[in-house]
Amino acid sequence: MAEVTYLEAIHQGILEEMARDERVFVLGQDVGAFGGAFKVTQGLQARFGEPRVIDTPIAETAIVGVAAGAAHMGLRPVAEMQFIDFISCAYSILTNYVATARYRADLLTPMVVRGPSGGYVRGGPFHSQNPEAAFLHTPGLKIVCPATARDAKGLIKSAIRDDDPVLYFEHKYLYRRIKEDLPEDEEILTQIGQARVAREGKDVTVITWSALVWKALEAADQLEREDGLSVEVLDLRTLLPMDLPAIVRSVKKTNRVLVVHEDTATGGVGGEIIARINEECFEWLDAPARRVAAHDVPLPFAPPLEDFVLPQTGDIVRAVRWLAAY
Amino acid sequence: MAEVTYLEAIHQGILEEMARDERVFVLGQDVGAFGGAFKVTQGLQARFGEPRVIDTPIAETAIVGVAAGAAHMGLRPVAEMQFIDFISCAYSILTNYVATARYRADLLTPMVVRGPSGGYVRGGPFHSQNPEAAFLHTPGLKIVCPATARDAKGLIKSAIRDDDPVLYFEHKYLYRRIKEDLPEDEEILTQIGQARVAREGKDVTVITWSALVWKALEAADQLEREDGLSVEVLDLRTLLPMDLPAIVRSVKKTNRVLVVHEDTATGGVGGEIIARINEECFEWLDAPARRVAAHDVPLPFAPPLEDFVLPQTGDIVRAVRWLAAY
Amino acid sequence: MSPDAAAPPPPIPAGLTRPQLHELYYYMRLTRSLEERLVNLYRQTKVIGGLFRSLGQEADSVGSAYALDRSKGDILSPLIRNLGSMLVQGATPIEVLRQYMAKATSPTRGRELNIHFNDLERGFLGQISHLGDMVPVMAGVALSFKMRGEPRVGMVYVGDGAMSTGAFHEGINLAAVQKLPLVIIAENNGYAYSTPMHKQTAVKQLVEKAAGYGVAGAQADGNDVLATYEVTRAAVDRARAGEGVTLVELLTYRRRGHAEHDNQSYVTQDEMAAWEAKDPIDRYHRRLTEAGWASEDELAAIDARIAVELDAAVDQVEPEPMPEALSALDGVMDTPARAPMEWYRRLHG
Amino acid sequence: MSPDAAAPPPPIPAGLTRPQLHELYYYMRLTRSLEERLVNLYRQTKVIGGLFRSLGQEADSVGSAYALDRSKGDILSPLIRNLGSMLVQGATPIEVLRQYMAKATSPTRGRELNIHFNDLERGFLGQISHLGDMVPVMAGVALSFKMRGEPRVGMVYVGDGAMSTGAFHEGINLAAVQKLPLVIIAENNGYAYSTPMHKQTAVKQLVEKAAGYGVAGAQADGNDVLATYEVTRAAVDRARAGEGVTLVELLTYRRRGHAEHDNQSYVTQDEMAAWEAKDPIDRYHRRLTEAGWASEDELAAIDARIAVELDAAVDQVEPEPMPEALSALDGVMDTPARAPMEWYRRLHG
Ligand SMILES: Cc1ncc(C[n+]2csc(CCOP(=O)(O)OP(=O)(O)O)c2C)c(N)n1
Ligand SMILES: Cc1ncc(C[n+]2csc(CCOP(=O)(O)OP(=O)(O)O)c2C)c(N)n1
Ligand SMILES: [Mg+2]
Ligand SMILES: [Mg+2]
Asked: For chain D, which has fewer Cβ within 10 Å, the N-terminal or C-terminal residue?
């Protein structure tokens, strides 16, 4: 066992897959000798050589397009967006070319697009985004959002081995803030499409993912201490395809559900989750399914503004209390 | 009164605003002498001159960026996407630059981006899209989707006069298929943000917009004839900002609601609507709010495939029967 | 036998053989004849969706694609007007007819239109509608050749219009930096839909864009199949030799509307007449016979062969069924292999 | 008084006056000193977010912006390293300090970072992070000048890295076709973050890209403020005269990391030393005094004035408060003017 940060876990996962499968290669801005803006790819070029760790121009559409073409030919590209906010520059080629390739033309496109997402870091409107909602209505893509170091490693490895294109959204707030003991001998693989019960509970279900899993767990502890409430926290881990059975199982147990996410409320992933719950668990709901999500504004930069706009632990606590009292 | 097609109504709206306000200008591919791929801008260049009806290169990001810059300077650009499917190429500049301009920098950006959307026309995966879901989680944008000739005209005129950036999604299936008598003397303005009760009813509410309003009305007639059911059809017209009061009013009246849209189900706008209904009308729902939306695949081209993937009138009929019987 | 018939034919240019000259003629004629069949089917409303002609551009498609070496595994990605390039790479009229008529038997099983289909084995990667995207994608294909040390070449077509897209710029630039084995064919046919070139770019010739990317540039008369072949072949050889990207501009003209519905109100009769006079097939036919590289009879035989081929193809494809509705749910992803049937389709009554 | 002191100073180049020469010095020095203050505040963790230096690039920012005519209403859009350009256009140190410290009083009321702010009256339009977007946006600003027949000019900065974006390509191409009054400053400072120019583009000089768009190209030593001014001024005059777009490459060097956290592990000491020797402020200081266009005392007085100005600015801004949380909901749109407070914030306990 060795203590590994979330960041180190992603690094290890990519490194292990590159060592295991020579078809795997990395491309992106400054990912080579420099090791990437956050050092996720540090040392990979020294170990695997320049052809397998490619510094690209500032051209996200080209990065994704080149990855797709190489993937068609049997390679397994891992493309880095320096900040995930810039995946928007590849939105068209991802949703139109990559996502549809198998369906319209039987083209295999095994590729991963990954990068640092998320706020709580004073990054301002263009270095804090959570782009999952923009891709949720795109058949053909998979979306994963790890919350733990184990899943950060397990999901990047599974994403690289997956035969479908996978968007891997890692949360930069977690990079160095969370650590976990991970076994060095056993191979860690997290199955895509499977949620994780991060905390067992029976009174209220909180459905969330990525950094907010930790705030949800904090809130759950506080609610147990202060209210004697038993809160179940479901870490979705994969948003597309979504683990609906796990959601339904938990909601039918607790009959009260809160969806918590960092992206803005309107049009966010929470709407889809609540619609599914409404469709599958209508008779089991003792209270309306509710959302705790960011306010509907571009994420402002100043600490008091960012802290106000983004969901905080206290918000989850109050919302769960409201649900429990309903 | 003169009978006007949906297409002609859009044309009239743009023409009237250009005549009324010299700050209004049009730009896009082939919009000039050629009058646009669907002839929406036919004759505008002849009447208003080349500087006000600009043929652009094939460059959607530039079209939107140029419109934004001109709008900052007090002009009122109307940008055409030759097919709305290509708005994806301007996704980044629309969501990051245009949508945030007022909030982050107090920049006025009064501009309209419009184009032909929608399927049922054998257009295949790249000439049939409904992009509203991709922009729904973008604070700072407005989204309108007219279903009638009157609203096609009323909404394009209001969009051009609006001080916020407006995405105007017109449905190409309706272009020449629907006609309406519109007064020539009175000025037609449809307020953005206001839904329309397309058909009064008391048993079930069908919430929809654009081309599917017509299928919903067809279904409502059939359900009245064959089942004696009274179906209310709510035409949202504006998706952002959404007319939640109108939705709540209708749902609290009928207690049963179906959301119908053409885009794929997962991650579509329907999820957001159902989440809102669940939040606002939980106690009033006698049945789960359900969705009739496209199957989760890229839209295929062959008629039997397209007809299968897209929602049809019969689907609405069966879904409403299910809700009524619940 | 007249005396001058005894004079030996001039040497064949560009290292081509007599059978290859005939093959070039075959593909150009096949392209045009196939499109003419499609026009008939279109008028009979048997074609689903639009019909895009390459009338007058057959030489640039065929001549450039012919410069690739299929035996080495070269791959191209066409534009909507490069039917000829697809045929050279082994796409068959039957496949094209099936695509246009949305048959279940079509390469995309009715999911995509016209020549939007591919076979990496035969060496063609179908485009999507969003212009420009295929440039970075083909750069990725070429990158795989380079990474594996394979002596293969990629080729991608862009129009005067598509070169205005950001995707084109990002793709060619990355390919240039990586010195990838990629040939970019810039088809200058004068128009992008109704938009003339001077409203698309401020350069007079598309080849001027090569310098801005530090890549080689070349130009040929796209209505001269042999010139097109020769210039493109040099670019292909450079790419295979590891010398990187070449931007090849082929000068031609779109003699039909953007699609069949477009009556080309925006072009003058003089302009059209001038280009009709430069018809690439007529020119090549004359050249072959005058040089003695082919006899009228040989070429007539090829025309006849094509007519038979196409009769058979149309007869075979026409009665074929469209796809089963349920097949629409298959194959969006590897896992799950099937998209769920929506609940409302499982209801009765 | 030494005899040669009597010799008249050489004529001032580029039609500038002595006071203007001093003003150029003032802005360059102000840029550097302001950044040095920011570094101190950054080390005291009083700066929120990253700090981006233009050390060694002050001349290219100041010299190019100075070529605009604010009295005519010219507008520029800077990059993160063009603090000097903003100051020339009238942005104040107080505004910049407020932005970096996220104060309620900042031009963006704490919503955006560093020099991401604008004032169209004074003539600067702040960038967003997504590189390239400001090129089409400034093309739109320039289009408004052209449509209204105003003799105004737009200027937009792009780096060696940003020129690889599709947005740059689409924007400059449209501006070229429309012959817009736009000057594009290509700042060649050798790197994009850690990426050297040869991994960004296959051209040796950025100015080579001008030909691909059919626009004029020019180049200057970006560490020579007068050369920069002169070359840029010619481009501005062309634009104002209706002659369209010019791409001006300014050769300079980024002497600090991409941001303060970056230790530039990827740069050699020799390379750094060579550019330190070309420091634009030292060079200009020498030139002014040697030519007799300014005395040591005059320049020392300017330095002193700046120090006083900045002391006062820092003292004023430091104690200012950050914005009120609730202000975060205002002004996303014209209507509704306020975003709703989320339900969970209205709950008690
Ligand atoms: C990104 C994008 N924008 C717009 C279109 C619509 N469109 C389809 S073909 C075409 C013209 C293409 O012109 P060109 O590239 O010169 O090819 P040509 O038709 O002349 O062969 C346009 C504008 C598109 N397909 N993709
Ligand atoms: C579209 C996009 N991709 C990536 C980034 C991340 N990024 C910010 S600055 C930068 C380097 C910019 O280099 P250059 O354009 O040369 O400007 P310089 O920093 O040298 O002034 C990168 C890659 C970005 N801001 N935008
Ligand atoms: Mg063309
Ligand atoms: Mg640089």
From this structure: N
